[in-house]
Write a structure and sequence with these properties.
alpha/beta; 4-stranded parallel β-sheet; globular
Length: about 290
């Protein structure tokens, strides 16, 4: 299960309405999001990559394990994926929200959507966190080692920001983000790094930080002019990667007299797909 993305710019108003829980988006928000999508070629590859991840998992599991994709905010919806599995005769579904760290604002919403759309007679087991799964940490560490960090580069791990009120209510998300960063750094032999947050929502309430763009400015002002970003809160390319980091944060770095690059996303990393296989088979073994 993943967030979902419109197939074209014309679908942006309806997509944003779904993201906002049925509330119509303002013309300004529609224009802003269209601009962001245009900056990365007009569409996000999220759906295509999620389908490719599912196909890679299907290849590892074999024909006896049907695999479907469901999006929370766009087609194919989570209900569509469950209907596809029901048609294949599936009695027990393993639901995997493709977000490594648990949050009530992300993973729980996927889980709730799956429960609401579950066909009669079907059993559902959901994976609610895999933030410290050894193969996830290995997959991110592989990307980090392949980037061959320079001695003078500041390493910044990033994840999606959340409203402060959610954390104050007891959400464990920042703890899990820190755990992922720590595990990846240890595997990659990185002793010094920072954790920052990105892609905060367009609301007036405070969101957790430090914000990636602020961290870039602060680092540059302190003489740290080379930055390597590792987005550990995401498992594939989409607008939060391709625009928020590659376009927006990179522009912030240039304006601050710094350079910024990032590690490639996991996408269909063999190690990441092996992790998905392990999650599924552990549930199968337990049941």
């Amino acid at each position: 299960m993943a967030h979902g993305t419109p197939s074209s710019l014309d679908e942006m108003p309806e997509y944003l309405r779904l993201v906002r829980g049925g509330r119509p988006p303002s013309p300004e928000l529609i224009a802003e999001m269209r601009h962001n999508y245009e900056a990365i070629g007009g569409r996000s590859p999220l759906t295509d990559i999620t389908l490719a991840q599912a196909a890679a998992l299907r290849s590892r599991l074999g024909a006896d394990w049907p695999v479907a994709v469901g999006m929370r905010n766009w087609r194919p919806f989570i209900a569509d994926g469950l209907a596809q599995l029901a048609e294949a005769g599936t009695e027990h579904v393993v639901g995997i929200p493709l977000a490594p760290q648990f949050s009530t604002l992300s993973v729980k919403k996927y889980v709730d959507a799956a429960k609401d759309a579950l066909p009669a007679g079907m059993q559902l087991t959901t994976i609610q966190s895999f933030c410290e799964h050894p193969l996830l940490l290995d997959a991110f560490a592989e990307r980090l080692r392949d980037a061959a960090p320079l001695a003078e580069e500041e390493i910044i791990f990033t994840a999606h920001s959340l409203p402060v009120r959610v954390i104050e209510a007891g959400d464990t998300y920042p703890v899990e983000v820190a755990a992922t960063a720590r595990g990846v750094a240890q595997r990659a032999g990185i002793a010094r790094y920072r954790v920052a947050y990105q892609s905060a929502g367009r609301t007036p309430e405070p969101w957790i930080g430090p914000d990636l763009n602020d961290a870039v400015r602060e680092g540059a002002a302190a003489g740290r002019r080379h930055i390597l970003v590792i987005p550990i809160g995401f498992v594939c390319d989409h607008t939060e990667i391709l625009f928020d980091i590659d376009v927006q944060a990179a522009a912030t770095a240039r304006a601050s007299g710094a350079t910024l690059r990032r590690t490639p996303s996991l996408n269909t990393s063999a190690t990441f797909v092996a992790m998905l296989e392990d999650l599924v088979k552990k549930v199968g073994t337990e049941n």
